[in-house]
Amino acid sequence: MPARWLTRLEMYLFGRKARLPVHPAAAWVRDLDQPAGGPRAARQPAPRPAVALRPRRLSVTEIETWLRDPYAIYARHILDLKALKPLDEPTDAADYGTLIHTGMNYFLAAFGERWPPTLTSK
Question: Could you read off the pLDDT of 55-107 as tens digits, one per residue?
Fold first, then answer.
């Protein structure tokens, strides 16, 4: 996405029947998106964890998940991945408390028990 000022400059020059010179780097950028020798098919993923790492017990719902999506079991039990919180999740009291305590920790680490001179009353 070109910058707004660049688009305006190009439109200004277009109205005057002129153009910006094309820099050689533009061709380099186009070439970065194209693999050398054309595209190649990737191998199908086939994770095979060591037997010692494989789960020994699964719940009934995990058996259903295993049959439907074996990579979900691999991610949960072998890679130990956890689901991320949604980005639009509202903050709660725990988030607020963590923010306040972290800020106080930074403040006390910087100034200790003595207040900085700019915060003392006169």
Answer: 899 999 999 999 999 889 999 999 999 888 888 888 889 989 999 999 999 98
> Whats the size of the chain, residue-wise?
122
Tokens of 119: 């915060």
At 56, list the tokens: 């020994």
Please list the alpha-helical segments (H only) found in 1-122. 4-15, 25-32, 60-68, 70-73, 93-111
104 vs 36: which has the higher pLDDT: 104
What's this model's pTM, rounded to 2 decimal places?
0.39
Whether 74 contacts 49, CB under 8 Å? yes
**Residue type at 70 in one-letter notation:** P
Residue of 62, 60, 59, 84 lying closest to 73 (CA atoms)? 62
Report the greatest alpha carbon distance in the chain: 74
SS3 content of the chain, % helix, strand, coil (to 5): 50, 0, 50
Burial 61-86 (b: 16+ CB within 10 A, else e): eeeebbeeeeeebbeebeeeeeeeee
